[in-house]
Amino acid sequence: MKRNLTLTLMTFAMVAALSGCAVGPDYKGAPQIDTGTAFKEAAGFKQANPQDLAPRGNWWEIYGDSTLNGLMDQIKVTNQTVKQFEAQYRQAQAAGDVARAAYWPTLGLDLSASRSQSNTSTVSGTGGSQTTVQRSAVKNNYGAVLNASWEPDIWGKVRRQVEAQDASTQASAANLAAALLSAQATLAQDYFQLRVIDAQKVLLTQTVDAYQKSLTLTQNQYKAGIVTRADVAQAQTQLLTAQASLTDLGVSRAQLEHAIAILMGKAPANFSLEAQPALTATLPDVPAGVPSDLLQRRPDIAAAERAVAQANANVGVATAAMYPALTLSGSGGYQGNEWGSLFDLPNRIWSLGAGLTQPLFEGGLLKAGQQEAEAQYDATVAEYRQTVLGGLQEVEDNLATLRILQDEAQTQDLAVKAAQDSANLALNQYKAGTATYVNVATTQASLLSAERSALDLQQRRFTANVLLVKALGGGWQASQMTQNQTASAR
Questions:
Q1: What is the pTM for the complete model shown?
Q2: Is 155 helix (H, G, I), strand (E, B) or coil?
C-alpha cells in the first residue's frame, strides 16, 4: 500500500513538472512597423503636450454644444449596433471561462438502483425417482460512486487556448469601443450637418425676404414706367428659385433627423430635433501627437494586434495536438445489495487509472493544422500592419483637409464680403435708375452662392474635425481592454 502511494505521488510530481512547459511560440508583442516620427500634414498645427494626450473621455464636449452632449449621453445605452458588440463582448468573456475550465478535473456522481431476478434448477433423487426443482431469487443492487477524470496540461495546450481566448476577449472589447466611437462620430457629423442646414434655412429665409422686397420695388417701378416687364419676370424668377431651394432643404434635414434617431436606437416617429438659428458649436484645435500614439489610442488597431496574439497562441494549440495526451481517472464509492447497509466498509469500491494517447498516423492532418495556424498568424500580422497604415492615412487625410479648408474658409469670407458690397452697389444703382435689374439679380445670386459656400465649408471643417478625433481614437486607450476584462472578472 505504501509503495502504491509513493508511486502515485511520484507520478503526480512528474505530471506537475511537465505541466510547466508550453509548446509553440511565445508572443513577442505587436509586430514592428515604421509609423514615422511625425505626421506629414501636421505642420502648422498645435503641438500636443502631455495633457492633450491624456484620455479625453467625452471627446465631443470640446465642441461646446449642450444639445450634442445630451444626445451623446444616450447613444451608449440605446444604439443597437453598440448593444450587438456589447453582447459579443460578453460572449467572448464566457468563451474565456469555458477555456479556463479545462484546467480542472471533472467530477461526477453516479447513483444507481436496480432489481434483478435469477432462476436456478436443481435435480434431487436417484435413479428413476429424480425430480427437478426450480428456484428463483430476487436481488437488489445499489450504488453510489464518485467519478473523476483529469487531463493534465503537460504541453500547454490549455494554456495556449486560454491565452488565445483572452486575446479574443480583449479584441472584442476593442471592437466594442470602435463600434461606440464610430456611432458617436457619425452622430456628431450628422448633427453638425443638420445644424448647418438650419443655418442655411435662416440664410435662405432672409434671402427670400430680400428678393420679395426687390420684386415689390420692381413691380412699383414697372407701374411707373421706369423698367420693363422683363425686369419683373427676372425678379419673380429669382424669388421663386430661392423659395424652391428653401423648401428643398427640408428633405435633407428630415433625412438627417431620421438618421440621428436610428443612431439613438429610436423610431424616427419618436424623435425630433428643434431647429437652431445658428451653429453654436466651436471648432476646436485637435493636437495630433505623434504617429506611434495611434497604436495605443485607436481601438481598431488594438483589436488587430490582439488578433495577432490570438493567432500566435493558436499555433501553440495546433502544435500541442501533435504530442501525447495523458488522462488520469479515478472512482470511489459504495456498492451493495441492501440500501440500509450500503455505506458499510465491506461495500466500499475504488479504482485508479491512467491512459496515454499518442497520434501515430493521421495522413498529415496535425501537421497541416499547424501549418494552417502559422499561415493564419502571418495573415493577421499583415492585417495588423495594414490597419496601422490605414489609421495613419486617415489622420494625414484629415489634417490636410483641415489645413486646406482653413485657408479656403479665409478666402471664402473675403469672397462673401466682396459679393455683399457688389450686391449693395448694384441695388443702389438700380434704385437710382442707372442699372438694370439683371445686374441686381446677378450680384444677389453671387452673394447667395458665396454665403452658402461659406456654410458648406463650415460643415466640411466640422466633419473633418470629427473624423480627425475619430482617427486619433477619440478618448480611448488600449489599457481599457484589460481594465474592462479585469472589472468583469471581479
A1: 0.84
A2: coil
Range 196-234 burial, b when 16+ CB lie within 10 A, else e: bbbbbbebbeebbebbeebbebbeebbeeeebeeebbeb
Question: Cell digits for 284?
Answer: 476646436
Judge whether 280 and 286 are in contact, CB under 8 Å. no
Give dist(CA 423, CA 430) in Å, integer: 10
- Report the chain's terminal Cα–Cα distance, integer Å: 44
Q: At 55, which amino acid appears?
A: P
With 0-12 / 13-18 / 19 or more C-beta atoms within 10 angstroms meaning exposed / middle / buried, residue 288 is buried
Q: Which residues contact 44 (CB under 8 A, 6 or more apart)?
A: 403
pLDDT for 40: 82
Top-level CATH class of 19-102+151-323+364-489?
Answer: mainly alpha
Distance CA 390, CA 367 (A): 35
What is the per-residue pLDDT across 23-75, written as a single tens digit (0 to 9) for each? 889 999 889 998 888 888 777 655 444 344 344 578 999 999 999 999 998 89
Q: Which cell is 211 given?
A: 428678393
Residue with the three cell numbers 502648422: 44
Q: In whole angstroms, what is the distance from residue 15 CA to residue 236 CA?
A: 95
Rounded distance between C-alpha atoms, residue 445 and residue 211, angstroms: 10
Alpha carbon distances (Å) from 209 to 239, 321, 399, 449: 9, 80, 39, 16
Scan for cell 435662405, then name that residue: 204
DSSP state of 438: H
How many residues does this entry show for the chain? 490
